Each structure stands twice: as C-alpha cells, then as structure tokens.
Amino acid sequence: MTTGKMHSAKRKKFITNSAVHVILGVLAVIWVFPIVWVILTSFRAEKGSYVSTFLPQSYSLDNYIKLFTDTSILNFPQMFMNTLFIAVCSCILATFYVLAVSYCLSRLRFKLRKPYMNMAMILGLFPGFMSMVAVYFILKALGLSEGNLIKLALILVYSGGAGLGFQIAKGFFDTIPFAVDEAALLDGCTKWQIFTKITLPLSKPIVIYTTLTSFMSPWLDFIFAKVICRANSDQYTIAIGLWRMLEKEYIDSWYTCFAAGAVLISIPIAALFLYMQRYYVDGLSGAVKG
Amino acid sequence: MGILKKRVNEFPTPYTCVNAVKKGGIETKLSMVLMGFGNIVHGQMIKGLIYLAVEAAYIVFMVMAGVNCIAMLPSLGSVEQKEVWNEAAQVYTYTKGDQSILILLYGVATILLTFLMVCAWRGTLRSAYKAECLAKEGRHVNSFREDLKSLLHENLQRLLMTPPMVFIALFTILPLIFMICMAFTNYSKIGEHLVLFDWVGLDNFKALFDSGSILGSTFWSVLGWTLVWAFFATFSNYIFGMIVSLLINRKGTRGKGFWRFCFVLSCAVPMFVSLLIMRTMLQPEGAVNVLLRNLGLIAQDASLPFFTDPTWARVTVIIINIWVGVPYTLLQLTGVLQNIPEELYEAARVDGANAFQIFFKITLPYMLYVTTPYLITTFTGNVNNFNVIYLLSGGDPVTDVGATAGKTDLLVTWLYKLTIDKQYYNIGAVIGILTFIILAIGALLTYRNSKSYKEEGGF
C-alpha cells in the first residue's frame, strides 16, 4: 500500500517535471528564436528584404564585408567611431556626476539635500523627450548644432541628466557603515579623501555598474540622436544608422546588412550586460525591497 | 505626505539674510548694493572681488541684452520678416524679423539667470554678515586659500554638486520651463505660427479637452489606449515573469542556469535591435507570415494583419512587450520570490492545495503586497514606453483620416509625432504636461506608501 502510493507520487512528480521542462523548452525556443533568426539572416547570401523562404538558402560573409567597405551611402565604420567617441566621453562625465551626487546625498548633510532629491523625483516624471525640441533649440543657440560640434552636443545631452540618476549608487553607498567614515575623520582625513580613498574603492561593483550603464546608453539611444543629428549623416550614431537601413529606400539593398550590423553591435553589448547582470540584480532588488 | 509637510530647519545658523539686514553693520548693509563690499572690508579681498565681478557682469549683461529679452517676453516679437526690393543690387533682400522662439528662449534663460543672481546676492549678504560677526567677536576670518581648502572638506558638496547641477539646469530644467511656456502659445504649424507666435492662455488645453473636435476625440482615444496598454503591459509581464521564474527555480527543474541564460540573452541584445527585428518579422511579407505559409497554416497569398488591423496591432504590441519585458521581470523578481517563507507553501501543500491555488492564493497576494512600489513605477514607465510602440508599430494603423495619431499611439509617441513630424509644438507641450500630471498622481500613490521614502536618511 505505502509503496504503491510512493510509486504513484513518484510517477506524478516525474510527469510534472517533464511537463515543466517541455514548457520551459518551448518558451526558451520562443525567446531565443528571433536572435538565432537574425544571426542566420546576417549570413544570408540572397539579397532583398522579403524572401519566400524562411531560412536562408545559402550562406556568405558578404553582408559583413559590405557593411565595412560600402561607405558611400551609409558609412558604418564612421558611425561606429562616432558612437565610440561619444560613448567614451559621456561615460567619463556621467560616471563622475553620478558618483559625486550619490556620495553627497548619501554621506553629507546639507540644506539642499532633501529639496534636491524631491526635485529629481519630480523631474523624473516628465516624459524624457518632452523637452527634446527645447534642447535642440538651446544647442542651436549655443552654436552646437552643426558639423563636428554635434558630437559635443550629444555628449552634453547624454551626460546632462546624469546627476538625476543617483538612486542605485546612493542605495549602495548607504550600505557602507558610517563608522568607517568616522574613523577616517578621526585620523585626519578630509571628506574628499574619504570619497576618493575609502568610499570609491569599497564600492567597486557600483562603480563598474555606473560606468557600464553610462557607456552603453549612447549605443542604445535612438531618439535624441535622431533629433539632434537631423540630416547630418556624417555624425550619425549606430542606432540611427541601423534604423535608416530599414527605411523604405534602403531596405531592399541593406536588409541583410542590417542584420549583420545588429549582430556586431549586440555582441559587445550582450557581453557587457551578462558581465554586469549580478550588479543589476543587486541594485534593483535593493530598491524593490525598500 | 513628506513633500507637503512643513520642513523643520535641520541646519540652524545665525548668519541668515534676515539677520544680516536687521542686525548687520553699515558695511554689511552696503553689500546689499555693492556686492562683496563687506568681505573686502573684513580682509576677504578675493572673495569680495569675485562677488563684485559677478554683480558687474550681471549688470552689463542686463543693460546690453537682458532687459531687452525680458521686455520682449509679453509680446514675443511682432516684426515680420519682409522682402524688400533692393534697387541698387537688383535683388530681393530680407529685413531681419523677430523670431518668437528665440525671444522666448532668451527670455526664459534671462529669468533663470536672474534667479541665480538673487541666490548669489543672498550669498554675499550672508557671507558679509558672517565676516562682520566673526571680526567683531575677534575670531578668525577665513582667507581665500582657506575657503578653497574647505571645498574639499566642510563644503565638499558645493564642489561635487555644482557641475551636475549646472548640467541639469541647462539641459533639463531650462528646456522643461521653455516647453511648459510653449503650451500657452500658438506656436504651431496650424495657422503658420512657426516664426511669430503669441500667448494664447489656456486655449490649447480647451482645444484638447473639447471632444467635439478631431484633436479632442483623438486625445481621449489615445489616453484611453495609453491606460489600457499600461495596465496590460504591466500585469502581463509581472504575472508571466513570475510564472517563468517559479518554473525555473522550482526544486525539480534541472539546468537552472541554462534556462535563465536563454531568457536573459534576449534582454542582452539592445532593445531597439530586437524591436526592429520583431517589426520586420511581422510585416505582411515578413518571416513569420512566410513561415506560416510554408507550414500551410494560411493561404499562399494571405498574411496575418499584425500591424494593419487595429485590434491585431494592439494585441501584437502587448504580446511583443511580453517578449521584451519578461527577462527583465525575471531578473528583478527572482530574488523577491525566493524570499517568500517556505512554511506558507508547506502549509498549503499539507492542506492539499494544487499549484494553481498556491500561486493565486499565496504567491500572488504576497508579491502584490511586497512589490507595490515596483508595480507602480513599472506602470508609470509603461505610460512613457516610447521605444516599444515607436519602433514596433510606429503607432500604426491610422484609421481615421485626418487624425494625427494611429490606433496604437501612446501619449508619448503622439507627442513625438506632433512635435517632430507635424510641428504642432504647442499641442505637444500640452500633452507632455498632461502626461506629467497622470504620472505625478501615480508617483504620489507610490511615495505615500513607500517605506523607503518615509524612512530615508533616518540614521
């Protein structure tokens, strides 16, 4: 009797387990499938955007070669360099801003602290690009809307709001015991020294997280770049370039190159993302539990 | 409510502006007119001179340009650009007309600058009074070098916060004020008010709320869809993400890391790339339709109307959003899910509950209780979810001829279309303000209930 019951319970467990694995398998296929498809498409030898077969008939590396050699209409290498330059510069500025603001709000007590945090909350509620047109006019008034200065304009725009995104880093700094700071103060450190020599080295994960997120944003942003670059195609970033390849006049000849470009961009971003995934989870679960 | 409560002054100091005016000596009072005078008298030469230079620069700026900028604000300019026949050169020349947009921008910037000047003025007054008091009591008055040194210690926040604040003022606050001003003008392609425009008060708000006009009816339908979308997008992701997370993390599942990797991989690909891929796959001649045809599920020349039929399009964007959003939900909720006390589950199992009952009676209520703030922020995030809609459907399909928004347009994508494509800047600004109001209500609910806000900084 008991063994029979045990046996049926085991059977039931086995059935449930297999069902779960099958469901997960189906879901995983659905989630991975578009990615596999784009990788296959990037090696597709047939040209044109819409073909009658689902999988490529023959494979070649032409799409990647064309991406880097055919620079007459859409200059992919230049877009790549533009984006890299903008990303590096705005990453340096934005990281410094985020860490400085977070440190001040977490460790120092001053009169404008609460008002600043309330202001950040209120500003965060406006649709991000509601002010986009206005930003463009301001950049134009500053003379930054033509030629190479567009890069500077984009750097300023990407790092401009950095001081408002302090929540995650501040949450991390809050967890470092105050006793550490007090001990350093007794030893005669200035607060600047505490910031650079104690807090930052203790917060390596969040420094890496902040650097990577601010490095990635120019690669991913599409709206601001489009509004600020307008018709200056020599200043385009990767995101606009890829988007343009799918526009009506280009899609037929550039569709497979789009897939190749998408793969090339996704590899470094995916690597960075998978690397910092643990910081991502830590930072957010802290915010959620609050 | 923390924001509305009267703030207790945490940092009492005797060196306030009121005290300076009431009790300050003659040199302090003179600083009200001649900034930095008090500092110079008490030996803070460089500091005083800097204040004086700031004042001089401000006065010069105001005389040269500032007064004019502010004076033009009420009318926003009236001189039209004119074509004049130049007899001598035998060509048409253009006289310089007013450009309302620049007048508005410079006017707002001047007002912001004046506000900063008032802050500097209060600063000089306080600083002069402090120097006077210290000198009277025979205590040490800081030299300029010591002031600079204090930036690294007592006043570190000034050193660290100023550059970010400048950027925020220039690229967030100034544009926002500027945009809010636009909502009260007729700056729009309607009626050709792109160069010269005027203040029109609340007319734009009235036009948008008037459900008889085409703009008004579009607004209500877009608002309705935005709320429906935000609701479904938030909860479909939330519940689906939770189910996937539970499936992966249950005891019997093998290869947890592999399954998690499969899902996380899709959010490692840049979002605009995966959305653009999805869009091309779902076109009438796209990969999905081709696959269905090859499998014989639909006729050879038929295609499913993913983005051409309103209902199909709405369901499609919600489903694609599940594809995009579930990996993120998975990352964020797994930790919280694992915190649910095991006893609850065991008790339920002893009582003979099945998996569905456990999920709906224990997991979901517990999660709703713990993650309410998260849910509300996701909801507001979805109201503002520009990327998914714009890159996926572009707001299509447009069914009403003459309407400026399609059937899947959200308030934000409609805002984008109105400002960038149509150049109806004023209506766009009004929509931005209304979106803000909707989100602010949501945020008030969040922060009223969130422990982290109430207890923040309570060390």
Explain how this protein is built.
- The complex is a heterodimer of chains A (290) and B (459).
- Chain A has 13 helices and no strands.
- In chain A, helix 3 runs antiparallel to helix 10 (204-220) and helix 10 (204-220) packs antiparallel against helix 13 (251-289).
- Chain A has helices at residues 2-42, 62-69, 76-107, 113-123, 132-141, 149-160, 167-174, 178-186, 191-202, 204-220, 223-229, 238-245, 251-289.
- Chain A has 2 domains: 2-62; 71-289, MetI-like fold.
- Chain A is flat, with a radius of gyration of 25 Å.
- Chain A is mostly helical and 290 residues long.
- Chain B has 459 residues and is mainly α.
- Chain B folds into 2 domains: 17-85 and 93-150, no CATH class; 205-454, MetI-like fold.
- Helices cover 66% and strands 2% of the residues of chain B.
- Chain B has helices spanning 17-23, 26-31, 37-41, 45-72, 100-136, 144-150, 156-182, 203-209, 214-249, 256-268, 271-281, 287-294, 310-338, 342-350, 355-370, 372-383, 386-392, 411-421, 425-449, 451-454; strands at 82-86, 91-95.
- Chain B has a two-stranded antiparallel ribbon.
- Chain B is flat and about 90 Å long.
- Chain B starts with 16 loop residues before the first helix and ends in a 5-residue tail after the last helix.
- The interface between A and B is large, with 96 and 105 residues.
What structural category characterises the helix and strand content of chain A? mainly alpha
Domain count of chain B: 2
Strand content of chain A: under 5%
Give the C-alpha Rg of chain B: 31 Å
By secondary-structure content and strand pairing, the structural class of chain B works out as mainly alpha
